[in-house]
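Budget justification note: compute hours in this period were largely spent on complex prediction jobs such as the one shown. Inputs:
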Amino acid sequence: MGGGTRPERVAENVNRALHAALAGDPRVWLLGEDVGDPYGGAFKISRGLSSRFPDRVISTPISEGGVVGVAGGLALSGDRPIVEIMFGDFLALAFDPLLNFLSKSVAMYGHEVPVHAVIRCPVGGNRGYGPTHSQSPQKYLVGIPHLELYELSPFHDSTAVLGRLLDRGVPCVLFEDKVLYTERMYGDGRVDELFSYDLPDPPDGAARVFIEDPATFDVLVIAPGGVVNRVIAAARELYLRYEVNCQILVPQRLYPFDVRTWLPTLADARRIVVVEEGSAGGAWGTEVASCLYPHVWGRLAHPIRSVASRPCVIPAAPHLEAGALVQADTVYHAVLEVADV
Amino acid sequence: MYELAVPKLNSNDISYVLTEWFYTDGDPVPAGVEVAVVETSKAAEGITAGEGGILVRQTEVAQECRPGEVIARLFADEEERDAYLAGAQPVGTAAEEPVVTEPARRLATEHGLDLATLKALGRKVISRADVQRLLGERADAQPRRHVPGRSQRAVAEMVTLAHRTIPAAHGTVSVTVDAALDVLREYSEREGIPVRLPELLIRTVAELFPRYPLLFATTHDDGTVTLAAEPRIGVTIDVGRGLTVPVVEPVTSLRAIAETLVRFRDAALRGRFAEADLTGSNIGISLPAGEVILVQPLILPGHAGMLSLGATQLVPHLEPDGRLGVRQVVHLGLAYDHRLINGRDAATFLGELKRWLESPARLRTLVDGREPA
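Corresponding output:
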């Protein structure tokens, strides 16, 4: 049916990135629960890795704190561990080694110690997995010195992203929205018949999704990879119905949030919306807003709008879950409000 | 055609992975057999076809499929299968339709632009601004505002007032003008000045003034009228620079009338009428304009009537001996203020005009400036 010519799915792209990382550097490890074949991880992202690299792909006991601690030890020994947390919700169990061990190791020994470690964690809802397997815990890790946060996106090739993260020298958490796994990567600068995208320099920068001309837009929407397809769906409706032209910036790195490469775009931005799936209250978007305000103050037509999920326990029933989490129509209405249509 | 859809196999998974097909495209599949296997997060499940037929697979091995998704179609025979495949739009080969926003669509519809016109723009996305540009390029399509000049605004004021205030009725007679034209030709040759039907009509109307005082009366808002001491006939002159109605002085000589009309046309061309030329008329005549044969004139405010003269036509006609002949005919119309004049009066006036214009004896009187016999 011509399926072979279609762009690969995000899951395949991440799987390929892990193959490349393990193949390209003998110091790279993959640790995680049930990552071994034939199971290949809860989301099949580590499929084929343990067969190909049996010594460096290790299925671990169910102890996130222990696994991340081991990763810290490997990193201090000069290796480059990748940890897969089965569900991002369980990152809470690894909070202590992230806060007190891996991140602090970079700077607490009197001289800078590179810590090459990547913690991958599937996050997000809309899968009916209920309160403890659907969360987006990005915001809980915002602001830890020497801990960088990234998010998987359908625009950025995971091989390059993972390679950069392993080279950073600080521990990195890579959030992977599980809804994204089954979706397709975008290629050739094309999203659909309406939207195009590009990847302006630098290579670790944001993808830019726009209609025809990136220099022209009404509303700037900042949205990480996990929610970007919902934002595109909203932006499409907004343009078709009202000709509200949204430009969408898809950052790779969530924290520290670096606006310097965005300054040309921000110079034209009069209306800004920041979208995340995490719940409202101490949200990532408010950190982004506080980073943006010094650069856009006095030019905005409207305060920066943060769009987040409802601050509630995520229901298991799909229809209730859909109402709690950020959806395309949540974004649609927020942008419409900001656009003053 | 039977569509094989994936059933909902559990409440946990949003989608499953198709792991195996037992048949390939084109295979005849019996009803009730397992056709494929999908893997849920917990188990592998066979998918059974409820009906048999020739198989066309829609999903590949290792692809995900959601509950309700059609993974295969089964056709009664190859003919039905081929017809379906011929009709199915191959992905990516059809020329892509442009995306047209709703504001653009609305504006295009308002101006009668169809989708083909928008497509011809060759743009991927068509917004309201694109449609506006397109409309701008079509200068004709863009509604433009025209502000009438001063003289036309004066005409507008006058005709609006006439239309609003004068309950006019209208009558028309047809006048055979062969005799009149003969007389005029002779007169023109003799006098060395071209004289035509308008001059003759003016002369005739002046002639009838004493017997039809109400037609020359000046009307007032209170319903009374002032009767005129003499006929002062306004004639319509439009040489393309706006309509004017200058007044022909009460004269008896056709030559004088002809000279007056020449002067009026000249003044109209130069746009230089004296105020006196344009005031004081008490009846109007709408003179022939091009090929127009019948005119229903508006009565000038203050007047009681207005005549109209149409273009001369050739009309076939039976002679007394039965032979077919040709006559020259004009339509002579009269609009009259029905508050003052009734149809009978108008008909009498038009009938008398017609007789004057058709009678060689009376024509001679008019031309020679003598009292009629």
